[in-house]
Each structure stands twice: as structure tokens, then as C-alpha cells.
Request: fold
Amino acid sequence: MTLLAEFKLWQEKLQALQKEGEELMARIEELERQNAELRRRLAEGDYEGDGFEALTKLYEEGFHICPGNFGRGREEDCLFCLNFLLHKGKK
Ligand SMILES: [Zn+2]
Reply:
């Protein structure tokens, strides 16, 4: 490989990395925004009722309530969350 070809390859890798970094940053900002929103609502007592109701509400509003992803934004249904709700709901 010529030095120029090698340089171009390196440049492409660098650009890909930069793009990845930007995407990661956007994701972090989104998580921080969600986190702040949750804290605000918790502080305002927006999640009243028993714990189960609060969790159900949280899930319906698009957040994970399963231990592995608790509090993270949820784009689609999560089997872990649903399983959790199903078992808690039976009590
Ligand atoms: Zn989940």
C-alpha cells in the first residue's frame, strides 16, 4: 500500500470515529435530559400512589423499569419490563 493510500484509509477511520463520537455525545445528552426530567418529576411528587402504580406509569411514559435498564428511555416494548409488571401486578 502506498503511503498516500494508507493516509486516506487512516483519514476515513478518523472520520468514522468522529461521527461515532458525535452520536455518542448526542445519546449522552438525551440521557441527561431524560434523567433531569425524571428527577424533576420525582421531586414534584408526580409519581404518587403505591410503587407499582408509579412504575406502571413510568413504563407507559416510555421508560424502562427493569433492573438492567431502569430509568432509560424506551423506544419499543421491553420483555423484561413487561415481565416485571406482570409479576408485580399479580400480587
Ligand atoms: Zn426494560
About this structure: The chain has two domains: 1-46, 48-91.
